[in-house]
Amino acid sequence: MKKRKNILITGASSGLGKGMALEFARQGCNLALCARRVENLEILKKELLEINPSIKVFLRSLDVTIPEEVFEVFRAFNQDFKDVGEKLDRVIVNAGMGKGASLGTGYHKQNMQTAVTNFCGAISQFEAALEIFRAQNDGHLVAISSMSAFRGYRGPINVYAATKAGLASLAEGARVDLLYKPIKVSTIFPGYIQSEMTDNVAKKPPFMIDLDKGSKLLVKAINKEKNKAYVPFWPWYLFKLMMPFASLKMLKKL
């Protein structure tokens, strides 16, 4: 399997995006990182170059809810790599949020922010990434979904889970569309990995692993370029098999 050396990660200023960037830097990959909080990216860049001074790190501010901005930033990163004699190998669609609450309880604005960021923003990222990959007839598109994508959830996870289900479907559709072409599309389903999002949850989720371990496992799964991967595999693959059989009463307790 070919080595993907030049990687674009959205939502890279914190959480899984930051963790993956650190791990890819250890592997000697050049990185194009974007997020709304560019000041965090500047701090991260220093960390990355301390890990591996030989890599290239490009930064740009990006709000994935603005389609024109997504295309502009992706094309600019693509040109950055061309300027140093490289090409964009992989795009990781990671940007997302988990704001919101039960439907009809006064949190429409927050629920819509989550929907637009996680799903509509992903469509723009897919479009911009695949425009580049189709032109060069090569590339690896990675969608960071969630183990919550397999069933509906109550409360603040309702809209979040729906967007992650939509993202998984979007990725599978792209995978079908690109069948027999030298462009790979992978969907990653993380379980509970420590991040800013999990830090804001009052009750610690079960089977949660720390960010460093989770990031290593995510990168390992991404590098294998399988159609789908569950991270960590145990116990989450078993969870995926069991979820279709869970009753509504069981889901209510989650």
Automatic annotation (TrEMBL):
One of its GO terms (molecular function) is oxidoreductase activity. One of its GO terms (cellular component) is membrane. InterPro entries: NAD(P)-bd_dom_sf (IPR036291), SDR_fam (IPR002347). Pfam families: adh_short (PF00106). The keyword Transmembrane helix does not apply. Transmembrane segments: none annotated. It comes from the Bacteria. Keywords: Oxidoreductase. The keyword Oxidoreductase applies. Belongs to the short-chain dehydrogenases/reductases (SDR) family. This is SDR family oxidoreductase.
